[in-house]
Predict the structure.
Amino acid sequence: MSASLTSRTRIGNGKVIGIDAAGQRIRPCARYAIKKQKNSGNIDVDAVVEGHTNLCHGMEMPERLFTKKRKLDRNIAAMFMVDVSGSTKGWVNDAERESLVLLCKAFEILGDRYAIYGFSGMTRKRCELFRVKSFKETYSETVKQRITGMRPQDYTRMGVIIRHLTKLLNAVEARTKVLITLSDGKRTITMAIAATTI
């Protein structure tokens, strides 16, 4: 890992620690309450208030006055496509790489599946995709080195990349699937290339 990125990660240790703490709070709380249940240890306050109101109006008190905790089954797959076109040169590229380190840390804590790919290109006939981490890979030193080695390339070519990554994402078994783009939002393309692609 480069000295600059390492130093920023160390300086930003508060961010990493914050992610650690937030992730650990989320994991134990990955449960949700089913309301209006019979014979459970937790009282459903809303059901009790509703039942008391019914009782005051001459109706019977309902039996379902409890809640039941059920484990929330997280089944998420996230795909990150990272813009490494020429316009990301400088602080944008630094911010992207630092963000990826923090994102990886967060996803590792939560245990969710994720993949990272960089993209660039020249024309519609030359779109480049750089694998940083596939869904099958672990967050290893190799992945960290790929993140550190991400550098601005050529132009912004997104259409083919989105279609290809969507195909990869759809091949993953998950209830929730998201495709997220990290980019500066600038369309880096020369007029000569624009004329050939219209």
